[in-house]
Amino acid sequence: MPADIPQLIRDIDAIPGTSRFGRVTAVLGLMVEVGGIEKELSVGGRCIVETRDGRPVPCEVVGFRQSRALLMPFGGLDGVGLGCRALVAGDQPSIFPTDAWLGRVVNALGEPVDGKGPLPKGPRPTPIRNAPPNAHARARVGEKLDLGIRAINAFLTCCQGQRMGIFAGSGVGKSSVMSMLARFSGAEMAVIGLIGERGRELQEFITEDLGEEGLARSIVVCATSDEAPLMRRQAAYMTLAVAEHFRDEGRNVLCMMDSVTRFAMAQREIGLSAGEPPTTKGYPPTVFAELPRLLERAGPGLAGSGSITGLFTVLVEGDDHNEPIADAVRGILDGHIVLERQIGERGRYPAINILRSVSRTMPGCNSRNENELVGHARRLLSSYDNMAEMIRLGAYRKGSDPQVDEAIHYQPALEAFLKQGKRESTDLATSYALLAEIFGVQWPQ
Q1: In this protein, which residues make up the domain named AAA+ ATPase (predicted)?
Q2: Which of 130, 280, 373, 403 lies at 20 to 30 Å from 236 by C-alpha?
Q3: What is the pLDDT of residues 312-359, one digit of tens each?
């Protein structure tokens, strides 16, 4: 018997013998109101609405109002009118990832969109919307993880199972940093979620930024900005679900998402359409409830399993790093990397502001010598930053402050250390060695 026959038999057995359906009673904006089956549905359940010409539109139940179910579509509502049938489609489906998914690009529903044929089906189902592991049963963060970017390796050391945010305005280099991390990190594999990405940039990111080398060890989940808000939100859940599958197999997974802000914007559209009251900057309460549920899914797994190292980009509106989403995410994650437009305008990429960035696993994950080396470099960067305006104006007199004199002396070398090309990789050991070389310190110690 062919190997795929038993799976085919299970799929056929799962097809229900009867169908239950209601009727569309109202359509308002992004919301479809359905009557007749409200007792058969629950929040998060699925329905298929049939248009006038018979085209199926998958929808999700997002609430109830006056004995009617409120549905949000995964696609457009063109052709949906009063009286159209809405069939009950069951609960949230599961996905069946496998190693054969590596190198593939899928959409928010787990369907292939790269033209490479159907996705193989793994033996074990993984729920798309899953709860984080129990906090008391989770393992501790693991050993240091090489991310290939020397500014992060040295000054913002990340550990396996840690969750970091990459905060930046538009056009400051978030996608470039993500592509470097996907290609150069020491993680076993990467799961990359592109949430609300520009359609024009998707192929550029996959073919140029990520490249064949990065794609071969990655699974990309994408939902472009023109897709329905439910698809954009679902893409974030799908990204974590794929990462959780491989974590439970004992892998150390690097999970990257660009961006959490667009996930929050999609949830805002869903919440406002369902009638939630707007709060800060128009974000309804469910946005701030869903953020920790999503981000807490990353991190160490249960004892004996693998880990998910999460790197989540946050698109700060108007370069305001204290706007509501950035503020909420910063309080959930285990550190933040700040990319600053002024640094990028000086031509230094990645445009990381070391002094405004922090890794909460430091200094605990470093040796005493490593902490002393990094601490000395940070103090010099801080001294130069405090006096930068006076130095540029020529108002600072050499000899006024020995530490500032030292900072001025080492500033060109430190600036060169923090600058790195997109195709250039520097491992953890080399990062410390290069930093020690600037100060003439013998390394390793």
Answers
A1: 160-344
A2: 280
A3: 999 988 777 888 999 999 999 999 999 999 999 988 999 999 999 999
- The residue out of 337, 359, 381 marking a domain boundary is 359
pLDDT one-digit tens code per residue, 239-278: 999 999 999 999 999 999 988 999 999 999 999 988 889 9
What's the pLDDT score for residue 17? 57
Is residue 52 located within the same domain as residue 122? no
**Domain identity same for 229 and 322:** yes
The domain of 207 spans: 94-359
What pTM was estimated for this model as a whole? Answer: 0.90
Segments of the chain with pLDDT less than 70: 1-4, 6-18, 445
- The answer to whether position 8 is within a domain reads no
In a domain, 10, yes or no: no
pLDDT of residue 321: 80
Q: What is the CATH number of the domain that holds 36?
A: 2.40.10.170
| Domain stops at, among 359, 389, 413 | 359
